[in-house]
C-alpha cells in the first residue's frame, strides 16, 4: 500500500516527502454506526489501514468508548468519537470516504427487506447530513436492505443537488468474500488466489455469483455450481441462523467493508487498476442500479465494467433476479420521495 505515494504525485494532499507512510495523502474516513456489531471491528480495521489519516467514529451512543479504545492502537490515523446528532456534522466534515453500517440487523426468519421500515429512515437522515457536510465523499452503504438503501441515498442526494453517481456504492464485497471462500473449498484452490465476480444485488436470489468466470478454473459439476450459488445467496442467512437471534454477520462484514473502503482509498489516491464488485448506478442492464465489477479511480467510479460471458445457468439467474431487484429499487425511490 505504501507504493501508492509514488503513483499519486498529482494529489493535492500529497506531502512532499516521498518515503514511508508520511508520503501517503491525508484521508479522512467516517464510520456511521461505529459502536455496532460491524462498526467496532470495522473501526479497528480502518485504524490498521495506513491510507487513513483521520478516523471519525459516529453513533447515537457508545462511540467515545470505542474511539478511546481503538485510538490507543499505534498506527497512523487520529481517531475521534462523535456521539449523537449534534456531533454528526463534525464527524462528517472533510471526509473522503463515509462508511455506513448504521441500522438494525436481521433475526432468524426475517428477510433483509423486513429491515426496511427502520433502516430506510436512518439512512435517509444520515445521507441528508452527508449532503450537507461532505457532499464530495465516497459513500459506502452497508445498511440493509442495500438494494433499497442505495436508491434512497441517491434520491436524498438528488434532492439536495449533490448527487454524483460515481460516489455512491452499495457494499456487496461480503458476497464476493463468501463466493471466494466457498469456491476455494470445492475447487481445491488456494483461497488467496481465487477470484469470483458477484453481480446483481445484495439479497437472496438477487446475489448472483458468476462461477463460470471464477479463477483459477476448476472442472466443477453443474450440481456443485448450483450448490455453491445457493450457499453464496444464503450466506447471510447461514450466519443469522447460527447466531440464533444475536444478529447477522459482523466480523466477516467488517473485513469485507474494510477491503472495499481500502479499494476506494486506493482509487482516490490514483492507484491504477483497482477493480471491485459493487452495487452502483449502472447501465449494464435495464435496471438503474446493479452490482458488477467497477473500476475505482480518483473520483470514485471510473467505469462500470460489463458482465462478461455468462453460462446458461447464470443467464437464467440474471433474468430471475430482475423483478425482485427492480421492486426493491423502486421501493427505496418511493420512500425517499414520499416525505
Ligand atoms: P448493530 O445493531 O450491531 O449495530 C448497528 C449500529 O447502528 C448500532 O450501534 C446503533 O446504535 C447504530 N445506529 C442506529 N441508528 C443510528 C443512527 N441514526 N445513526 C448512527 N448510528 C445508528 O448491527 P450490525 O450487525 O452492525 O448491522 C448493521 C447493518 O448492516 C444492518 O442493517 C445489517 O443488516 C447490515 N449488514 C449489511 C451487510 C452487507 O453485506 N451489506 C452485511 C452484514 C450486515
Ligand atoms: C449478510 O449478507 O450477511 C448481511 O446482508 C446481513 C444479513 O442480514 O444477511
What does the model show?
This protein has 339 residues and is an alpha/beta fold. It has 11 helices and 11 strands. The strands form 3 sheets. It has a 6-stranded parallel β-sheet, sandwiched between helices. It is globular, with a radius of gyration of 19 Å. The site of nicotinamide-adenine-dinucleotide has 32 residues, from helix 5.
Descriptive labels:
tricarboxylic acid cycle; binds (2S)-2-hydroxybutanedioic acid; alpha/beta; globular; L-malate dehydrogenase (NAD+) activity; mitochondrion; binds nicotinamide-adenine-dinucleotide; Lactate_DH/Glyco_Ohase_4_C; single chain; 3-stranded antiparallel sheet; 17% strand; 339 residues; 6-stranded parallel sheet
Number of helices: 11
Beta-strand percent range: 15-25%
Task: Give the overall average pLDDT.
Answer: 94
Q: Kindly state the number of beta strands.
A: 11
Helical fraction equals 40-55%
Give a short account of the largest sheet: 6 strands, parallel
Series of secondary-structure elements, N-terminal to C-terminal = HEHEHEHEHEHEHEEHHHEEEH
Alpha-beta classification: alpha/beta
Distinct ligands: nicotinamide-adenine-dinucleotide, (2S)-2-hydroxybutanedioic acid
Uncertain stretches of 5 or more adjacent residues = 1-19
Shape: globular
What's the N-to-C terminus distance? Answer: 44 Å
Strand order of the largest sheet: 3-2-1-4-5-6
How large is the radius of gyration?
19 Å
Subcellular location: Mitochondrion matrix
Organism: Cucurbita moschata
Catalytic activity: (S)-malate + NAD(+) = oxaloacetate + NADH + H(+)
Active site: 202
Amino acid at each position: 500500500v505504501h507504493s501508492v505515494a509514488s503513483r499519486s504525485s498529482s494529489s493535492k494532499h500529497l506531502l512532499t516527502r516521498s518515503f514511508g507512510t508520511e508520503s501517503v495523502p491525508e484521508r479522512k474516513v467516517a464510520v456511521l454506526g461505529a459502536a455496532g456489531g460491524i462498526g467496532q471491528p470495522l473501526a479497528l480495521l480502518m485504524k490498521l489501514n495506513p491510507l487513513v489519516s483521520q478516523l471519525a467514529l459516529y453513533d447515537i451512543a457508545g462511540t467515545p468508548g470505542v474511539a478511546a479504545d481503538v485510538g490507543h492502537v499505534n498506527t497512523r490515523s487520529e481517531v475521534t468519537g462523535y456521539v449523537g446528532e449534534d456531533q454528526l456534522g463534525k464527524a462528517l466534515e472533510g471526509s473522503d470516504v463515509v462508511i455506513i453500517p448504521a441500522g438494525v440487523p436481521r433475526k432468524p426468519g426475517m428477510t433483509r427487506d423486513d429491515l426496511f421500515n427502520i433502516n430506510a429512515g436512518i439512512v435517509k437522515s444520515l445521507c441528508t447530513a452527508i449532503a450537507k457536510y461532505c457532499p464530495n465523499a465516497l459513500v459506502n452503504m452497508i445498511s440493509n436492505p442495500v438494494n433499497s438503501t442505495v436508491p434512497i441515498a441517491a434520491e436524498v442526494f438528488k434532492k439536495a443537488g449533490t448527487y454524483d453517481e460515481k460516489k455512491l456504492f452499495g457494499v456487496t464485497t461480503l458476497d464476493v468474500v463468501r463466493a471466494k471462500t466457498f469456491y476455494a473449498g470445492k475447487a481445491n484452490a488456494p483461497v488467496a488466489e481465487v477470484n469470483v465476480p458477484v453481480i446483481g444485488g445484495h439479497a437472496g436470489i438477487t446475489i448472483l455469483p458468476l462461477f463460470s468466470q471464477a479463477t483459477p478454473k476448476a472442472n466443477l459439476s453443474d450440481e456443485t455450481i448450483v450448490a455453491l450459488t445457493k450457499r453464496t445467496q444464503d450466506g447471510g442467512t447461514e450466519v443469522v441462523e447460527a447466531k440464533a437471534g444475536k444478529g447477522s454477520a459482523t466480523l466477516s462484514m467488517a473485513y469485507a467493508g474494510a477491503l472495499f473502503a481500502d479499494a476506494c482509498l486506493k482509487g482516490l489516491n490514483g492507484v491504477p487498476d483497482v477493480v471491485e464488485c459493487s452495487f452502483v448506478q449502472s447501465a449494464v442492464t435495464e435496471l438503474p442500479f446493479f452490482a458488477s465489477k467497477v473500476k475505482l479511480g480518483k473520483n470514485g467510479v471510473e467505469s462500470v465494467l460489463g458482465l462478461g460471458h455468462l453460462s446458461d445457468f447464470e443467464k437464467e439467474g440474471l433474468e430471475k433476479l430482475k423483478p425482485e431487484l427492480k421492486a426493491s429499487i423502486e421501493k427505496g425511490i418511493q420512500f425517499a420521495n414520499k416525505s
